[in-house]
Amino acid sequence: WRVRRRAIAPGFHRRWLNRMVTLFGDCGERLVDDLSVQAELKTPVDMEERFCSVTLDIIGKSVFNYDFGSTNKESPVVKAVYRVLREAEHRSS
Question: pTM here?
C-alpha cells in the first residue's frame, strides 16, 4: 500500500486541491454568468451541451493547461464530438 500511497499522495496536496477548487469555481462562475444572460433573454438552453462545455473547459485547463473557452462561446470541439457520435449512432443502426 505504500507504493500506491506515494503514487496518489501528490493529488491530495493542499496546494493542488486549492488549485483545482479554484479552477472548478472559475469555470462554474463563467457558466452561471452565461446562463444568467440566457435566462434574462428567455432563451432556451441545451443544458447537456452547457455541461459538456464546462467539463471540456475544466479538463482542458487542468490537464492540458489550455482554455477552450467553450463555456462562453459555442465550442467547435463539442459540436464535432456530437457530430461524430451522431454519425456513429447512424452507422450502427
Answer: 0.69
